[in-house]
Specification:
Blueprint lengths: L10 E7 L4 E6 L4 E3 L7 H4 L10 E2 L5 H7 L1 H14 L6 E5 L5 H8 L5 E5 L7 E2 L3 E4 L16 E5 L8 H10 L4 E7 L4 H10 L4 E2 L2 H10 L4 E9 L10 H9 L4 E3 L5 E7 L2
This protein binds zinc ion.
The site of zinc ion has 9 residues, from loops.
């Protein structure tokens, strides 16, 4: 077996993924884990299909609400602004956009003209003037509906994509200017085990393997940051006082190589 990132030889591990019923393979060279055969997951992602479509009218939010109540969402926004410095986005596409948290913040900040969400789970849907919401997989969206997208956003989606190289090729062919994503970081033991065992993730990245993946796909301008959450940590309880103080100071996360998440911004221009 060959590593899909760096083509080194990979070894089978004892980590059996309960969604795929498959063992994960490990690549020592680039530090990554992989499920080596693809499973048809379309039914899994649309498992709420029998439910009525739930079209919610979007209510315009004030961005300060996210600053305090959704620190993770706000931190993603800050990372995007910091790494794209002054770039304006007119047409944004989010893959796996769920209940529209990131759309809501970008809209409140007046950041774009139009926003499209592609979300296979039909229990999510939103109606808003500058929002298009498709309950389907990204692969199923007709090409003509993706023309003119200047930023693709995807949080915890890339690890679900089996053929990542094909995905990047499609992104490049569409003429997208920026790609912004976040994936779990296997440098954290708890994140690693969750990712390997309990989620439908084909690939599990470290900072080094993610960098190799982007290099291999010909990306030359990108920023990768490994993040340790401070105010919204899923595994640790922060004392209330320090949580409030950190929130007020906007210190919701710190850079840490062993942090829980890897965030990346690719500039394709
Ligand atoms: Zn590798």
């Amino acid at each position: 077996m060959i590593c899909p990132v760096c083509t080194s030889k990979i070894e089978i591990t004892q980590y059996n993924n309960e969604v795929f019923s498959r063992e994960n393979y490990y690549c020592e060279f680039c530090n990554s884990f992989h499920i080596v055969d693809e499973k048809d997951m379309s039914a899994y992602y649309a498992d709420e299909y029998h439910k009525d479509f739930n079209f919610k009218q979007y209510k315009k939010a004030f961005w300060l609400k996210d600053y305090f109540s959704k620190p993770r969402n706000y931190s993603r926004y800050q990372f995007l602004k910091k790494t794209t410095e002054g770039v304006e986005f007119n047409n944004i596409l989010e893959i796996g956009g769920g209940n529209g948290d990131f759309y809501s913040l970008m809209n409140a900040k007046g950041e774009m003209d139009s926003y499209t969400i592609v979300e296979p789970n039909p229990s999510y849907n939103l109606v808003a003037e500058n929002l298009l919401y498709h309950n389907m997989l990204f692969e199923e969206v007709p090409e003509d509906q993706l023309i003119g997208v200047d930023l693709i956003v995807m949080f915890h989606v890339l690890e679900h994509i089996f053929d990542v190289d094909a995905f990047f090729t499609r992104v490049k062919q569409l003429g997208v200017k920026y790609l912004f994503f976040e994936v779990p970081n296997i440098a954290d033991k708890r994140v690693k085990e969750d990712s390997l065992l309990r989620h439908p993730h084909y690939h599990h990245y470290s900072e080094s393997s993610l960098k190799m993946l982007l290099d291999k796909n010909g990306f030359t301008k990108y920023a990768i940051s490994s993040i340790r959450p401070v105010t919204y940590h899923p595994y640790e309880i922060t004392p209330k006082i320090s949580r409030i103080l950190n929130k007020l100071m906007g210190r919701n996360e710190v850079a840490d190589r062993k942090g829980l998440y890897l965030r990346a911004l690719i500039n394709l221009t």
